[in-house]
Amino acid sequence: MRILKFGGTSVGSAARMHSVADLIQSSEPRIVVLSAMSGTTNSLVAIAKLLFEGEIQAATSQTEILRQHYMMVARELLPEPAVAEEAISQLSTSFKTIFNLMRQPLSTSGERVILAQGELLSTLLFHRYLTAVRGQDAVLLPALEFMRLDTNDEPDDAYIREHLAQQLAPHAGQKLFITQGYICRNAKGDIDNLKRGGSDYSASLIGAAASADEIQIWTDIDGLHNNDPRVVEGTYPIRELSFDEAAELAYFGAKILHPSSVLPARQYNIPVRLLNTMQPEAPGTLISSKTGSEAIKAVAAKDGLVAIKIKSSRMLLAHGFLRSVFEVFERYRTPIDMITTSEVAVSLTIDDATHLQEILTELRDFGNVEIDENQTIICLVGNLIQENHGSARLVFNALGDIPLRMISYGGSPNNISLLVHTADKTRTLKALNAGLFQR
């Protein structure tokens, strides 16, 4: 069994769906997980926003524009008029759902129902294309029947495994299944979504529940690159990463993958392969339990950080000082990204400034507090075990005169983290690329 996930760009048009249909041809059992067509989720978010603001007429107009777009795609994808009209009738169910929600003030649960329509639309179209045009025997699996969150809004692994098996059971011998990414139900049974990681997370959870042999994430880039190709020239895809290395890169800014999406695969040791729908012949990136010998494989950057420094003479040898500091952040549900300490000070970073002022007020009870905004974490990932001598020297030689606000090394065998001002981000990435990967 293989799980193949295709993102919004990969299914963003009739032509792209043709290509995806070619890519999923195989004699092996496979579950294909689809995102909404590119642009659809943004449109649905905008429609929900208009409804929250009471702009019913504008929301109605935007929904009708989206409906007309899907009618056009259906007719392009399904050339037989009778087949296209039948599909259009089925698509209309999703749009009727949205229109019906306009009759009363929109609730949060109603917003989630609206957002779920994107994946329902894309899978309906693609499944109809496979069966009616390609003549393939494919089963449409409703994700809302097996994807579920628990009372803590985390995936309910036992429920997913049990109910996925129930959905698959009537189709023994079937080779091809199509399902939705991103959407699920919560513990109350209401329509919800996975938020973090979206359809990638769905694919990994389904892979774990189905005991898959491999999970494939198909996007529009050929794997995780060794640096940010948007700002650095001459980057290249990394062929192999360990689960831990991939999670570090994803957390610290590699946009191709969300850190949550590798966790179920790592738990069940299922390899994850990142592939490019535009270049299917490219080997992409393989993420598994194995790691290579390279000391530093890749660099990623995470913007939007705030650095906080708490300086206090009371910290010296004070039992429970750090615990008290951390409890402040816990009270405001604000994660800490990076931390360094000295005898009289502790510096840390956060990426959520929602409760910054309340946090600063409480921290001033411990001592003098300073903050630096517009900070960026530069994360260097690889096999940084102690036996790999010289890694830190290469990094600092490459950085030259770039001012560093914080340095974290040793907390993980896979990561060196540096904090710089965001204004220095681009030249830091370029300097590291020149010093580490072009020697």
TrEMBL record:
Its EC number(s): 2.7.2.4
Keyword Nucleotide-binding part of the UniProt annotation: yes
Pfam families with a match to the protein in the record: AA_kinase, ACT_9
Catalytic activity: L-aspartate + ATP = 4-phospho-L-aspartate + ADP
GO molecular function, one term: ATP binding
Domain Aspartate/glutamate/uridylate kinase: 2-276
Residue span, Aspartokinase ACT domain: 378-434
Cited CDD domains: AAK_AK-HSDH-like, ACT_AKiii-LysC-EC-like_1
Pathway in which this enzyme or protein is active: Amino-acid biosynthesis; L-threonine biosynthesis; L-threonine from L-aspartate: step 1/5; Amino-acid biosynthesis; L-methionine biosynthesis via de novo pathway; L-homoserine from L-aspartate: step 1/3; Amino-acid biosynthesis; L-lysine biosynthesis via DAP pathway; (S)-tetrahydrodipicolinate from L-aspartate: step 1/4
GO annotations of cellular component type: cytosol
Residues the record lists as binding substrate: T41, E119
Any GO BP: threonine biosynthetic process
PROSITE patterns: ASPARTOKINASE
Keywords: Amino-acid biosynthesis, ATP-binding, Kinase, Nucleotide-binding, Transferase
Residues that hold ATP according to the record: K5, F6, G7, G8, T219, D220, R230
Record-stated family: Belongs to the aspartokinase family.
Protein name, entry field: Aspartokinase
